[in-house]
Amino acid sequence: MINYLWLFVVALGKLLLGGAVFYAIMRQRRLTRRERIDQDAATRELYEKDETADTSPYGGSR
């Protein structure tokens, strides 16, 4: 009897985990064109800010 209980628990765990992954994938949405443009601009800004950073206290240049 206890073997069937563990079989049920393990099978149910797999189903719940699979369901949670499926739900998360289905809830994702694509970015709109405007959101992609804004995201790219913010990324470029961060990279530019990092390139001009003073890293001399850490052994870098400037």
Please supply descriptive tags for the structure shown above.
2 helices; mainly alpha
General description of the model:
The model has no long low-confidence stretch (mean pLDDT 88). The chain starts with a helix and ends in an 11-residue tail after the last helix. It has helices spanning 2-27, 33-51. It is built from two helices and no strands. It has a domain at 23-49. It is mainly α and 62 residues long.
Return the string of H and E elements: HH
Can you summarize the main beta sheet? none
State the total count of DSSP E strands. 0
Radius of gyration from CA coordinates? 24 Å
Strand content: under 5%
The shape is: elongated
Secondary structure: elements and pairs:
Blueprint: H1 2-27, H2 33-51
Structure at a glance:
With 62 residues, the chain is mainly α. 73% of the residues lie in helices and 0% in strands.
